[in-house]
Amino acid sequence: MQAADWFPVFLSLKVAVLATLSSLLLGVPLAFLLARRRLPAHNLISAVTTLPMVLPPTVLGYYLLLVIGRQSPIGRLLEGWGITLVFTWQAAVLAATVVAVPLVIRSVQAAFEAVDPTLEAAARTLGRSEFAIFMTVTVPLAWHGILAGTVLAFTRAMGEFGATLMVAGNIPGRTQTLSVAIYDAVQAGNNSLANLLVLLISLISVAVLVVLTRVAGGRRW
Amino acid sequence: MVSLLICQIEKRLGSFHLSIDLRVDDHVTALFGPSGSGKSLTMQAIAGLMTPDSGEIQIGDRTVYHAEKRINLPPQERRVGYLFQNYALFPHMTVAANIAYGLHRLPRDEREQRVADAIAAVRLTGLERRRPAQLSGGQQQRVALARALVTRPDILLLDEPFAALDQSIRQELHGQLMELLRELPVPTLLVTHQLEEAYALSRTIAVYQAGRILQVGPRDQVYGKPYSMGVAAQVGFTNEIPGVVIETGNGSTRIRACGLDLLAPETPFRVGQSVICAIRPEHVMLVRKDMDRSGRSGTVIPGRILDELMYGGDLVLRFRPEPTGSGEPVPDLRVVIPSYVYERLGMATEKRWEVALHPAYLLVFAAPEPLHGNEGREEHEPGTFSAE
């Protein structure tokens, strides 16, 4: 295997890590708000954040293209700053984030809802700030759900295909992720490469799962 | 004198309406009443966990809530110690970390000293590194108490502190809590729906019903001289007989009730007025058959015992009076006697007895305005059953 062939592996890892981080950054606060506050457009927000889970990835990718494409207002704004998103690896991160966020919100919201609000009330009467309470009471008690969401988000981002292909394309050495490379290899009849890549992605996913369950198992009270 | 607490608030929650004006000067005040009468809601309002619709709350000389002046301090700034019903200990923290949680602003060594002192004060030394799940219910209660007090709050709120505990250890813990509270210079509110608890732990009792406070006063006054039938029923006057005043004067009142002639102390009621006579089950005297009855005062009622319930060392009997021939049957009476009396008199086999209602034990209240339809205790307090 030549050096260039490792590119999809590193790209997929980079995309998955960044997408997991950004879906946590986006999903955890949103999940907290959905679990604890009665938001003005509660059901709407809940529905919109679930949508990526029910839409086919290609359809999602197409919507993303409409939003960030060169003809769209956002695309043109970015263009004005000299940024083009479409057909870059950053677009792959965006696509993976969008498909991973609902998974984070789902499991983290359920975990937050399972935390007894009386504990937060008790912390308030003890004079702690809302942020301190969130970090020292809510998050530690919802830890398992947050971890589960992280695992789901990472593996989903790792395997993302449809939406990524739509917005990032299939440019070898630039935007070709592992999943896309597998598809490419099978199309080209390169079965040995396909086998290798499939084995790799399976190993990575299982390894992540094992490591994270270990970490979760070590945290008990 | 400045009240330690002024809590004059209104809050509507669906069909429930909390409307109270509570002023506390004493050290331990019990908020007593049935579940859902607004006791816990009052505590939440004081702690800032619930915002009332209107009114004001003052803790000591600080106004923590004032609807018109738009003052509404967050719970963080109210300096209230709150002991929750299930204690709300942080399950992922040790005993020491739980207690230290509110001392985050103190330097490390001072914090550790305060925690150590608090642990010693509630006699938990040696358990610092335990998690709440590894403690007994009584120990958890003490951790929660230490955590609430270590920040030196201006007022301590105890929300049903014994509800999460087994009946068998409650009495012992009542004593322990009493001891701890006596040493504290902090005014305390105690929510309970158990009369014995309110009586044992507080000097002042506020009787709640359906979002209102029916009576506030020293515990003996509330217990012995309730203002109204609503309060009387809650503090244990569970026998009620309706009647009409037929004679007044000479320091006594004569009442015709369901064909019975009842004698009661002097009352402000006029002849012809409809009243309710109330008496505690423990004040209904069983007339012993083996003793001379002459010289006994009060009304003697023959009847039979329908059923009996063992409760602690006492027996609660349901006594059905014989028909008086007046058409209106006398309501069944609850009678409490110690179990040794029950055994001594052979009451297990003999069911026909006479009971005596002594005038000194009878309380007389104005009958409620005639309301059609619904029967119930609330009727005696026409102004108080708007909610629920």
Brief overview, please?
The complex is a heterodimer of chains A (221) and B (388). By secondary structure, chain A is mainly alpha-helical. Chain A has helices spanning 7-36, 42-54, 57-68, 73-80, 89-113, 117-125, 130-141, 143-159, 162-168, 178-187, 191-217.
Element string of chain A (H = helix, E = strand): HHHHHHHHHHH
Distance between the termini of chain A: 48 Å
Taking all Cα atoms into account, the compactness measure Rg of chain B is 25 Å
Largest sheet entry of chain A: none
The level of helicity of chain A is over 70%
Number of helices of chain B: 9
Give the key terms.
heterodimer; A: 221 residues; mainly alpha; globular; B: 388 residues; alpha+beta; six-stranded mixed beta sheet; five-stranded antiparallel beta sheet; 9 helices; 21 strands
Your description of this structure?
The complex is a heterodimer of chains A (221) and B (388). Chain A has eleven helices and no strands. Chain A has 221 residues and is mostly helical. The model of chain A has no long low-confidence stretch (mean pLDDT 89). Chain A is globular and about 65 Å long. Chain B has 388 residues and is an alpha+beta fold. Helix content of chain B is 22%, strand content 34%. Chain B has nine helices and 21 strands. In chain B, strand 5 and strand 6 (71-72) form a beta hairpin. In chain B, helix 3 crosses helix 4. Chain B starts with a strand and ends in a 22-residue tail after the last strand.
What's the topology here?
The complex is a heterodimer of chains A (221) and B (388).
Chain A: H1 7-36, H2 42-54, H3 57-68, H4 73-80, H5 89-113, H6 117-125, H7 130-141, H8 143-159, H9 162-168, H10 178-187, H11 191-217
Helix pairs in contact in A: 1-5, 1-8, 1-10, 2-5, 3-9, 5-8, 5-9, 6-7, 8-11, 10-11
Chain B: E1 5-13, E2 16-24, E3 28-32, H1 39-47, E4 54-59, E5 62-66, E6 71-72, E7 80-83, H2 95-100, H3 108-121, H4 137-149, E8 155-159, H5 167-183, E9 188-192, H6 195-201, E10 204-209, E11 212-218, H7 219-224, H8 229-234, E12 239-249, E13 252-257, E14 260-265, E15 274-279, E16 284-287, E17 299-311, E18 314-321, E19 333-338, H9 339-344, E20 352-357, E21 363-366
Parallel strand pairs in B: 3-9, 3-10, 7-8, 8-9
Antiparallel strand pairs in B: 1-2, 1-4, 4-5, 5-6, 10-11, 12-13, 12-15, 13-14, 15-21, 16-20, 17-18, 17-20, 18-19
